[in-house]
C-alpha cells in the first residue's frame, strides 16, 4: 500500500544451534545476542545471520523495526535444521579461509584443523592481540546511537570494530599469519598451491604389482616349472649372501627333483638354523610362499638334507591326516625313500621309542588337532612328542599350514586357542629344534605372528621388549608398517615369499541378481523375522523370563538371523552356479565349486525327525527357524508345577536350583536371586537396610527349606504349623500378604476358601500356559508353510546330475540323493561299500583328477592342502573354472581355497568366478575377506596390491565406522546427510520419506531401540535411540541389513557406501588415508651421494641405510606442447583439451596447466609445469570453475617457462613461505631422503623424530618406492622429511659411509 501505512509483516524467528549444548534455539527477529535457556551460555548470531545495516541517510530517523536478517545460509538437506550455529563468546570467532565456517578458537591455540573442511589453519598471536584491542575499543556504544535500539550485550563479548564487515580471517596451510581486515589487505590465497598440496599428500600412483622372480644370489638347480613372481616391494630387498653348502646338491643335480626356488629356500633355512637368538633359542625360518608353489616338496628336501647331516628325527605338523600321503609322495620324489612317515593319530599314547612301538627315527606326522589331544589317563600327544624328541633335540620341527596356530594373542575379550598355546609350548620345550613356519597365509594380520617366537622380531636384543610392544607399533604404523616387516625378514635371511603368477588366471566378480521367486521369498522371510521378533518380545514379557534367560534367547535369535539370511544368499546364487557350471562344461572345461558350510547339522536333525526317506531336500533355513522356535520360545511354567501340597513345589524348586554352588563359608546371605515363577510383580515385601543388625548371631540365620539358601531370620516366613522357614518369593504362588505370627504355609492351610484361591491361581496359570503353547504352535505352522529354499549343496549336486557326475570333497558323512524313481529323496552315507569313510575324499579327488567326474564341490573342512589343478601328470587337464558359491569367512581361507586350483606344474591357470547377489547386505562377508586380504597381501607378500583384490568391498574399517555414524546421525535427524540419499531428489519431502522408511527398517532389526510413534506436530513420526556401541558397529549393521526386504536393504547399503566414499575422499585430502607403499614418480631420479649406514644387525649382518636423492618432477614447455600435439594428431582428444590458466592471480601472476580428457568421460588429466601429471583427475566442472582455456600459444609458452624455472628452487607459496626451504609443495627439484634396509631395529628412533614434525602428513610412517633413472635401482623404505633427517641421525648416534 502507498504511504507505508500498513504494518510490515512480522519477521520469522531464526533457528540457530546452541554453541554449548547443540540444542536448536529460535532467536527472535532483531536479536543478535542471546542466552541459551538450557545450558545458560551467552552467545551471539553467526555473521551470516547478522542483520544487515539499514540503508538510510544520516538525517532519517532510526528504523522502528529491526533490519531484515541477512540471506540465510544454503538450505540444509533436512526440514527444520538450524541454518547456522551460535557463536561461543568464551572463545575467539574466526572464519575458515576455505569453507568460511565460523570456528570457536580457544585462546592460545596456534595450529589446528578446520573440523568442517579439514584444512590446516594457523594463528599469528601478535596480530591477534591488535585485533582484540581494536575489538574491545569497539565494544563501547558508538556516539550518538539510541540506547533503546541497541540489543542487550554481554560485557565479555568482543564485537567487530566499526566498519569491519568481516571478522578476522584464517589462512590455510603453513604458518601464514592472520591479517586484520582493516589494518592491511587480506593475504592472497593460492588456490593452486592448496590443490597441489592436497594431491601430494594423497600419495603416489600404483606401480607394477609383481616382478618375475629368480633367486638373486644362487644359480643352483633348474627353473621352476611355472612362472613365479615376487612383489616389486620385496624384490627391492636383497637377502644375505648364501654361505651354506648342501649335502644333497649332487643328488639333486641328477634327479632334478627340486627347482632353483626350492633349493634357495633350503639353503637360507639351513643357514638361518646355524644361528641362535639372544634368548638362547635356535633361530627359525618362515616359508611364506603362495599356495601351489611347492612348499611340501621343499619341506621334504629340508628333511632329507637334515637326515644326511645325521639328524634322523623330525616332526611334521599339518592340518589333516590325509596329507600324510602327500608327505610320503614328496619324500619319495626327493629321493628320501628310506625315511619312514609315522602318523601319530594311529599310534597308542605310550612311549614312541618303546619296544612295543619301536619308532627310533623318521618323521612323526601329526595334525594340529592331535597336538592338543590327550588320552583318558591324561597323557597328551604333546608330552609324547617331547619325550620322543628329547630336550637336546636339534632336528626339524615343521609347522605346515601354520596359520592354524593363529589367535595365540586374540582380540580383547576372547581366549587364546588351545592350538596356539600348544605350538608355543612345544617350541619352549625344544629350544634347539630347527623350527620352520610354513604357510601361504601365515600372518594375515600382525596379531597372528604371536606364535612365531623363533623369528626374533621382539624380545631381547630388539627394539620391542615383548610381542605386545611389537604389535602396538605395527598397528599404529598401518599397512605400510606390515609391508616393512616382510621386507625386514627377507633382508635378514629368515623369510622367502614367492607366488605363482596370476597372469593367466582370470578373476571375475559375478553379480547374481535375485530371481522373481527368490525376491518374493526373501521379502516374506524378512517380514516373518520382524514379526517373530515382536512375538518373542511379547512372550518374554508374558512369561516373566529371567534377564539371563532373555539375553540368551536374543543371542540365539540374532545368531540364527545371520545364519538364516546367509543361507538365503547362498541359495539365491544356486541358479547362477548351475548356469556357470553348465557353460563351462559346454566349453570343454571342468568346474570346482567352493563353499564353506555344508548344512550337515540341519540335514542330520531333519533325518532324525522325519526318517531317511523324505519328499524333498531339506530346507536349511526352515529347519533352523523350527529349531530356534521349538527350543527357545519362552513359555510360562507348566500348570502341573502347581499341584496341591508343598512337597511337590519344594521338589520343583530344588530341581531348579540344584546346579547352584552354594557356599556356607562365613555367612552367604543370598547366593543368587531365585526365579519368580509368577508374572505377578506386586511383591512389595522389601525390608529396608535399617532392618539389618550390624552384628548378627548364628541364631538370626536360617535356611530356606525350598531354595536351600542361608538367610536372615527376618527375611524368611516361619510356618506356625510345620515350623519351616521359606522365602516369600520361593512359594508358588509367591506370598504377597501381610506377615503375621500365626502364618501358615499352603500345606498347613486347611481352610476351604484358601484352597479355592490356590486352585483359581493354578487355573489362571493353566490358561496362560495353554495360550502360549497355542501361539508357539501357530508360529511353527507359519514356518512350515513358508516357501523357503533347499540346502544349496544337495540342490547343486542334484541339478548337475547327482553324485555320479559330481565329486564331493567335504567333511560331511551323509547326503540326500534323489530316489531312482524320481519321487522323493533318500539319506545315504557318502562312501560306497568298497571305500572307507576316511578315504572317501581321496577317492572323490581321484575321480575328478582322472576325468570320471568333471565337477568337484569343495568345502574348507574337506579340501585343506588338496590339489585340484590341471596337473600335467593328471588325466583330466581341462581348464578349471573355480566358482565361489560362498566366500570364506577370512582371507586366509579364501587364499587357501583359491590355491586348490592354481598350483605348480599345471597346463592352464584357472578362471575364478566370485559370486555375490545384488543384496547390499551380503557384501558384509566380502568385506571381512577384503579386510584380511589387504593385511594378508601386506604381510605374506610385502605388498598389499598383490593377488586378487576385493578392497572395493572393505567396509569394516575405521572409515567405515565413521561413515556409519554419519549415516545413523542423518537417519535420527541429529545432523544432515553428507550426500543425498539414494532415490531422493534435493526436495525435502523425498528425504523425509526416506528417513521414515529407514527408521522403520532399523527398528525392525533392533538397531533403533525404544521406538515410539510421536504425537502433535510430528504425528506419525518414529522416534527412538541407537545405543553408542551400535553407532560405529559396521559388522552388526551389515549383519542386520541382511534381514531387511531387498529394496530398503539396497537403499541403506548404497547410502552407507556413498557416505564412505565422502569420508575416504576427505581422509585422502587430509593425508590421513593409509595408502601402503607409495610410488614416487619423477622425470629424473638421481642419487646425491653415497648411502650412509646408520645401523648394522649383529645376527645377519644386514644394515639400515640412509639414501638421499634429487628428483625432478617438472615438464618442460616443449614436452607439454608435444603431448598436446600428439593427442590432437590422433583425434583422440575432446574439444576441452588444451592449455589453461588460473582465473585468480597470485602475487601478480597466474598458474598454467595442460588438461586433456582421461579414461572416464568428464574427468581430465592435469599436467603442471612444476610437478608433471597430477595424481587425481579433475572433473570438467571444477576445471572450468578454477581455470580458463588459453588460445595464445605465446602467452602460455612464456607463463609455463617462468613457472618451470621458478619452481626449481622455490615452493608454490613463494618467498614468504613460513616453512621455508623445508616446504616441498609444488617444488620441481626436491631432495628426498629414504631410510632403507632394516627398519624394525631403529623403529623407536624414527617414531620420535617424526612425532616432532609440523605437517600432519610428515608425522605418519610412510613407506615409499622409487627407481633411479640412470641405473634402474629400486629403493623401498621409509620417507624421512628433510626437517626430520637431523633428528633421526642424532637418535641413531653414528653414521658411517658404505664401502664401495
Automatic annotation (TrEMBL):
| InterPro entries, per the entry | P-loop_NTPase, SBNO_a/b_dom, SBNO_Helicase_C_dom, SNO, SNO_AAA, Zinc_finger_PHD-type_CS, Znf_FYVE_PHD, Znf_PHD
Residue stretches making up the PHD-type domain: 701-751
One MF annotation (Gene Ontology) recorded for this entry: chromatin DNA binding
Q: Which GO terms describe its biological process?
A: regulation of DNA-templated transcription
List where Low complexity composition bias occurs: 76-85
Q: Does the keyword Manganese apply?
A: no
GO CC term, one of those recorded: nucleus
Alphabetized UniProt keyword annotations: Metal-binding, Transcription, Transcription regulation, Zinc, Zinc-finger
Biased amino acid composition, Pro residues: 60-75
Q: Where is this region: Disordered?
A: 47-87, 200-242, 678-698
Record bears the keyword Metal-binding: yes
Q: Which Pfam families match?
A: AAA_34 (PF13872), Helicase_C_4 (PF13871), PHD (PF00628), SBNO (PF25373), Zn_ribbon_FGT1_1 (PF23547), Zn_ribbon_FGT1_2 (PF23548)
Give the matching SMART domains.
PHD (SM00249)
Transmembrane feature ranges: none
UniProt lists the family membership as follows:
Belongs to the SBNO family.
Name of the featured protein: PHD-type domain-containing protein
Q: Which organism is it from?
A: Eragrostis curvula
Amino acid at each position: 500500500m502507498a504511504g507505508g501505512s500498513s504494518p510490515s509483516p512480522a519477521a520469522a524467528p531464526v533457528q540457530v544451534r546452541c554453541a554449548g549444548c547443540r540444542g536448536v534455539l529460535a532467536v527472535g527477529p532483531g536479536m543478535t545476542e542471546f542466552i541459551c535457556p538450557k545450558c545458560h551460555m551467552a552467545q551471539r548470531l553467526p555473521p551470516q545471520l547478522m542483520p544487515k545495516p539499514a540503508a538510510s541517510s544520516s538525517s532519517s530517523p532510526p528504523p522502528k523495526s529491526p533490519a531484515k536478517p541477512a540471506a540465510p545460509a544454503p538450505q540444509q538437506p533436512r526440514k527444520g535444521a538450524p541454518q547456522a550455529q551460535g557463536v561461543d563468546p568464551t572463545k575467539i570467532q574466526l572464519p575458515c579461509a576455505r569453507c568460511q565456517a565460523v570456528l570457536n578458537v580457544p585462546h592460545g591455540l596456534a595450529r589446528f584443523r578446520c573440523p568442517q573442511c579439514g584444512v590446516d589453519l594457523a594463528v599469528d598471536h601478535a596480530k591477534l592481540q591488535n585485533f582484540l584491542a581494536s575489538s574491545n575499543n569497539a565494544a563501547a556504544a558508538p556516539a550518538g546511537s539510541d540506547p533503546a535500539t541497541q540489543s542487550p550485550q554481554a560485557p565479555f563479548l568482543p564485537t567487530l570494530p566499526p566498519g569491519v564487515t568481516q571478522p578476522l580471517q584464517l589462512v590455510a596451510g603453513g604458518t601464514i599469519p592472520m591479517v586484520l581486515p582493516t589494518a592491511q589487505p587480506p593475504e592472497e590465497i593460492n588456490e593452486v598451491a592448496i590443490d597441489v598440496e592436497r594431491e601430494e599428500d594423497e600419495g603416489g600412483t600404483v606401480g607394477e604389482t609383481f616382478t618375475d622372480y629368480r633367486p638373486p644370489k644362487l644359480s643352483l638347480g633348474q627353473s621352476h616349472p611355472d612362472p613365479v613372481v615376487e612383489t616389486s616391494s620385496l624384490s627391492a630387498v636383497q637377502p644375505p649372501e648364501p654361505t651354506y653348502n648342501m649335502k644333497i646338491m649332487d643328488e639333486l643335480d641328477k634327479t632334478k627333483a627340486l627347482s632353483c626356488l626350492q633349493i634357495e629356500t633350503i639353503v637360507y633355512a639351513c643357514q638361518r638354523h646355524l644361528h641362535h637368538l639372544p634368548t638362547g633359542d635356535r633361530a627359525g625360518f618362515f616359508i611364506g610362499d603362495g599356495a601351489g608353489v611347492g612348499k611340501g616338496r621343499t619341506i621334504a628336501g629340508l628333511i632329507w638334507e637334515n637326515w644326511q647331516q645325521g639328524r634322523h628325527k623330525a616332526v611334521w605338523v599339518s592340518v589333516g591326516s590325509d596329507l600324510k600321503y602327500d608327505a610320503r609322495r614328496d619324500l619319495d620324489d626327493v629321493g628320501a625313500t628310506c625315511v619312514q612317515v609315522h602318523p601319530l593319530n594311529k599310534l597308542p599314547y605310550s612311549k614312541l621309542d618303546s619296544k612295543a612301538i619301536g619308532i627310533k627315527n623318521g618323521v612323526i606326522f601329526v595334525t594340529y588337532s592331535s597336538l592338543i589331544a590327550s588320552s583318558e589317563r591324561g597323557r597328551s600327544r604333546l608330552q609324547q612328542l617331547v619325550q620322543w624328541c628329547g630336550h637336546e633335540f636339534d632336528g626339524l620341527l615343521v609347522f605346515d599350514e601354520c596359520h592354524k596356530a593363529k589367535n595365540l594373542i586374540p582380540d580383547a575379550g576372547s581366549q587364546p586357542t588351545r592350538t596356539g598355546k600348544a605350538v608355543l609350548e612345544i617350541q619352549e620345550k625344544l629350544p634347539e629344534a630347527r623350527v620352520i613356519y610354513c604357510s601361504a597365509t601365515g600372518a594375515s594380520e600382525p596379531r597372528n605372528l604371536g606364535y612365531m617366537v623363533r623369528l626374533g622380531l621382539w624380545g631381547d636384543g630388539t627394539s620391542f621388549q615383548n610381542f605386545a610392544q611389537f604389535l602396538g607399533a605395527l598397528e599404529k604404523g598401518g599397512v605400510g608398517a606390515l609391508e616393512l616387516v616382510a621386507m625386514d625378514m627377507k633382508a635378514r635371511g629368515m623369510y622367502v615369499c614367492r607366488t605363482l603368477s596370476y597372469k593367466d588366471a582370470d578373476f571375475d566378480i559375478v553379480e547374481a541378481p535375485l530371481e522373481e521367486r527368490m525376491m518374493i521369498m526373501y521379502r516374506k522371510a524378512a517380514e516373518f523375522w520382524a514379526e517373530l521378533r515382536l512375538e518373542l518380545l511379547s512372550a518374554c514379557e508374558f512369561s516373566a523370563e529371567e534377564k539371563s534367560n532373555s539375553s540368551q534367547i536374543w543371542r540365539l535369535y540374532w545368531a540364527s538371523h545371520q545364519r538364516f539370511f546367509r543361507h538365503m544368499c547362498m541359495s539365491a546364487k544356486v541358479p547362477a552356479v548351475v548356469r556357470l557350471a553348465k557353460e563351462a562344461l559346454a566349453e570343454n572345461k571342468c568346474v570346482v565349486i567352493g563353499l564353506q558350510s555344508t548344512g550337515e547339522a540341519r540335514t542330520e536333525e531333519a533325518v532324525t525327525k522325519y526318517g531317511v526317506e523324505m519328499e524333498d531336500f531339506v530346507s536349511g533355513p526352515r529347519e533352523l527357524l523350527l529349531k530356534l522356535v521349538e527350543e527357545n520360545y519362552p513359555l510360562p511354567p507348566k500348570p502341573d508345577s502347581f499341584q496341591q501340597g508343598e512337597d511337590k513345589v519344594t521338589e520343583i524348586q530344588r530341581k531348579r536350583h540344584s546346579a547352584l554352588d552354594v557356599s556356607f563359608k562365613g555367612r552367604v546371605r543370598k547366593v543368587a536371586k531365585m526365579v519368580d515363577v509368577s508374572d505377578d510383580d506386586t511383591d512389595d515385601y522389601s525390608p529396608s537396610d535399617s532392618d539389618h543388625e550390624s552384628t548378627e548371631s548364628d541364631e538370626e540365620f536360617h535356611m530356606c527349606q525350598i531354595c536351600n539358601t542361608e538367610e536372615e531370620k527376618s527375611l524368611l516366613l516361619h510356618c506356625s504349623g510345620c515350623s519351616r522357614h521359606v522365602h516369600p518369593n520361593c512359594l508358588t504362588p509367591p506370598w504377597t500378604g501381610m506377615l503375621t505370627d500365626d502364618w501358615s504355609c499352603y500345606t498347613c492351610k486347611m481352610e476351604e476358601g484358601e484352597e479355592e484361591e490356590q486352585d483359581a491361581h493354578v487355573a489362571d496359570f493353566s490358561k496362560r500356559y495353554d495360550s502360549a503353547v497355542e501361539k508357539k504352535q501357530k508360529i511353527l505352522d507359519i514356518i512350515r508353510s513358508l516357501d523357503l529354499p533347499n540346502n544349496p549343496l544337495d540342490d547343486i549336486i542334484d541339478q548337475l546330475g547327482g553324485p555320479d557326475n559330481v565329486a564331493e570333497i567335504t567333511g560331511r558323512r551323509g547326503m540326500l540323493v534323489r530316489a531312482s524313481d524320481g519321487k522323493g529323496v533318500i539319506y545315504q552315507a557318502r562312501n560306497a561299500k568298497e571305500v572307507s569313510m576316511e578315504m572317501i575324499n581321496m577317492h572323490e579327488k581321484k575321480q575328478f583328477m582322472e576325468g570320471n567326474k568333471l565337477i568337484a564341490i569343495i568345502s574348507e573342512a574337506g579340501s585343506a592342502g588338496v590339489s585340484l589343478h590341471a596337473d600335467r601328470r593328471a588325466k583330466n587337464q581341462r581348464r578349471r573354472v573355480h566358482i565361489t558359491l560362498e566366500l570364506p569367512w577370512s582371507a586366509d581361507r579364501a587364499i587357501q581355497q583359491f590355491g586348490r586350483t592354481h598350483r605348480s606344474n599345471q597346463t592352464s591357470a584357472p578362471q575364478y568366478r566370485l559370486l555375490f547377489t545384488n543384496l547390499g547386505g551380503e557384501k558384509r562377508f566380502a568385506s571381512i575377506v577384503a579386510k584380511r586380504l589387504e593385511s594378508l597381501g601386506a604381510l605374506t607378500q610385502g605388498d598389499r596390491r598383490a593377488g586378487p583384490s576385493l578392497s572395493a568391498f572393505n567396509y569394516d574399517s575405521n572409515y567405515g565406522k565413521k561413515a556409519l555414524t554419519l549415516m545413523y546421525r542423518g537417519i535420527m535427524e541429529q545432523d544432515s546427510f553428507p550426500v543425498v540419499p539414494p532415490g531422493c531428489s534435493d526436495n525435502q519431502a523425498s528425504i523425509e520419506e526416506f528417513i521414515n522408511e529407514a527408521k522403520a527398517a532399523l527398528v525392525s532389526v533392533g538397531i533403533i531401540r525404544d521406538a515410539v510413534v510421536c504425537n502433535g506436530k510430528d504425528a506419525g513420526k518414529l522416534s527412538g535411540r541407537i545405543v553408542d556401541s551400535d553407532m560405529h558397529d559396521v559388522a552388526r549393521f551389515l549383519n542386520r541389513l541382511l534381514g531387511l526386504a531387498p529394496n530398503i536393504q539396497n537403499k541403506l547399503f548404497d547410502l552407507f557406501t556413498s557416505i564412505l566414499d565422502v569420508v575416504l575422499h576427505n581422509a585422502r585430502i587430509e593425508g590421513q588415508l593409509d595408502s601402503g607403499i607409495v610410488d614416487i614418480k619423477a622425470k629424473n631420479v638421481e642419487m646425491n651421494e653415497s648411502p650412509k649406514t646408520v645401523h648394522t644387525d649383529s645376527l645377519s649382518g644386514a644394515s639400515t641405510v640412509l639414501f638421499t636423492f634429487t628428483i625432478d618432477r617438472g615438464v618442460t614447455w616443449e614436452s607439454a606442447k608435444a603431448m598436446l600435439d600428439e593427442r590432437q594428431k590422433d583425434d583422440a582428444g575432446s574439444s576441452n583439451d588444451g592449455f589453461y590458466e588460473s582465473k585468480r592471480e597470485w602475487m601478480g601472476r597466474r598458474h598454467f596447466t595442460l588438461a586433456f580428457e582421461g579414461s572416464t568421460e568428464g574427468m581430465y588429466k592435469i599436467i603442471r609445469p612444476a610437478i608433471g601429471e597430477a595424481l587425481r583427475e579433475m572433473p570438467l566442472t571444477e576445471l572450468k570453475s578454477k581455470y580458463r582455456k588459453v588460445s595464445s600459444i605465446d602467452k602460455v609458452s612464456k607463463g609455463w617457462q617462468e613457472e618451470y624455472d621458478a619452481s626449481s628452487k622455490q615452493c608454490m607459496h613463494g618467498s614468504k613461505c613460513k616453512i621455508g626451504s623445508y616446504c616441498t609443495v609444488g617444488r620441481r627439484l626436491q631432495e628426498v631422503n629414504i631410510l632403507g634396509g632394516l627398519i624394525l631395529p631403529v623403529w623407536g628412533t624414527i617414531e620420535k623424530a617424526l612425532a616432532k614434525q609440523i605437517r600432519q602428513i610428515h608425522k605418519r610412517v610412510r613407506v615409499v618406492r622409487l627407481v633411479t633413472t640412470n641405473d634402474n635401482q629400486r629403493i623401498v623404505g621409509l620417507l624421512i622429511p628433510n626437517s626430520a633427517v637431523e633428528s633421526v641421525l642424532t637418535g641413531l648416534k653414528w653414521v658411517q659411509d658404505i664401502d664401495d
